[in-house]
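Obj.: predict assembly geometry.
Materials: sequence records (below).
Method: joint structure prediction, all chains together.
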Amino acid sequence: MATRALLAVLSASPPRMIQTKVSTFSSSSSLSFQRHSRRIARCFSSDTNPSVLQPPDVSRLAETARISLTPSEIEECGAKIRQVIHWFGQLQQVDVSCVEPAIRAEMEGGNLREDAPETFENRDSIRASIPSFDEVYLKVPKVLNKE
Amino acid sequence: MSTTLLRTIQPNHFTLLGTALFRRNRTTTTSRHISVRCLGSQTASSQPRTAPKNHGSNKLDEILRDYEAVIGIETHVQLSTSTKAFCTCPNTYGSKPNTSICPVCMGLPGALPVLSSKVVDFGVRLGLALNCGLSLKSKFDRKQYFYPDLPKGYQISQFDVPIASGGYVDVDIPLEFGGGHRRFGITRVHMEEDAGKLLHSDTGDYSQVDLNRAGVPLLEIVSEPDMRSGIEAAEYGSEMQRIVRYLGVSNGNMQEGSLRCDVNISIRPIGQAQFGTKVEIKNLNAFSAMSRAIDYEITRQALLYNQGQADQIVTETRLWDEGAQKTVTMRKKEGLADYRYFPEPDLPEVILTQEYVDSIRASLPELPEAKRRRYEAMGLGIQDVLFLANDVSVAEYFDQVIGKGADVKSAANWLMSDIAAYLKNEELSISDVKLTPQELAELIAAIKDETISGKIGKQILFELLAKGGTVQGMIKEKDLVQITDPVEIEKMIMKVISESPKQLEQYRSGRTKLQGFFAGQVMKMSKGKANPALLNKILLEKLDAKE
Ligand SMILES: [Zn+2]
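Observations (raw structure tokens):
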């Protein structure tokens, strides 16, 4: 859960930071990267110096997360998020140029499932926890446009 | 079998409706007329100008002399797996709302997704069928947005490493649209999950959500921007539908939303390298609608260009309004959506071995394009080829009939005319009929070797379609063997002639059309069993004989 939260915070940061993030992710994730020379890999690691990471735009973060924050909360969060980003900056300083990039953590086989249906027994309690139910449907505010 | 004729034997909706449209175009009212008129009134409301005078059906052709349309398509295919993509909830269409749910697809804390092997299997199948390269290692990512049909707040999708990429698909343009062969590029195929279904009631200030569909597996196919007209786009869509049905990865049903096409379209003056502003069209639930929506959109954008108002073409999503036959603004896109993709931490990478890929490649069925080329090589005309290969069950039936040694052209004719008509009337699919491919082959053989006449053959056909049985059994039971003995036929002819002296006199005084009357009488007397060629030959001899 901790990583999930951190990733969510990171991914929800201002554009400049996203660029940095995407470049590291895609470089480490695309298979073609494996053909990249070590020199390029070094370039990447020096590229992600913490000084490049910009301070978070908390108002925008809150907007993308669909939450409203008071000015004092924004100030409070800002400091915490800056700290998280700083930790990531420290992590990115580690020289990993001699490590083979992995796109995901590897798992010993058998991580797929048979296509055999099984109904979840306790569906009633899931439905009971839905605050607004209209006969068989979930009731939500009228929405017409995505994004 | 709930499959009906529309889905199975007739050419797809696009071809059917397209043909109808084409015919109408050539007469008086035309759909293109209609769309141009709609456009006229639409622009007229925003600025006073005269509606285009030329309502001719070649309006679009005229536009396409100056402008080139650039069209790309995103196709979402709902997979016919038994479970959802990442949980064991049953994947069934039309269940009671909100019954196929569990902590995983509802995004409850602590629940972990586990991918179904069938989704990978189908992804590889489709990737290979679309001539793509496969990623032996691919991964899932989270695409984040807030919407009531998305319980988790993100969609599990594949972002930068899709399971398949860099392929192509070959299609044949139907003759009525100019014919020809086209190849369209496939950018990528990736695995993802569907969102729930959102229903907007006209009354009431709320919307309803059914989450049975949330988490159902999808394959998204992204094309290269290679299409240039509504017809090409619709034919591309039809081919996707054929391919997923041939492969058995989806029922490809557009009405149920199992196959959804979103079209991206821009136009640019011919010779301009830079692409124009891209507009997306959604809500296309038939290929005919897709074709018309695109042609409408080309016309709309070209008019704006011609009026020096190209800046009014904005990045937006438009909906096809089937009633009004036009596209309308759904939402303008302010800046690119930021989905904040990041790797899905709850799922491991998807690893394929080369042996696995090879085994799937070896198990692929013959695909539509291969079938069309094979039928063409057997000497069938392109219209027959397109009809037979359009539907996988019809193609399989046809293959079985000719596998029994039946004459290829006769088999095609029977399937395309009488059998197709029967299926249409009875609202059946080819897999519902009692006539086996074996017996259709027997029937064709019995007519060819003149055991029975073509007319009797038709009668037998309809009985076999409805009740089953064998051709030989029916011939015996009803004593239907064709009369090919000239002596017997001559006897009947003499009897008819002797009973119709008046008609004989008229015939001999020049009304030679009466030959038909005599032939009919003899055929009636033989209960349809007289060999027609022999009958006519002997009849002529007798009628023209000088007494
Ligand atoms: Zn579930």
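Conclusions so far: Residues 447 and 453 of chain B are 6 Å apart (CA to CA).
To do: check interface contacts against the pulldown list.
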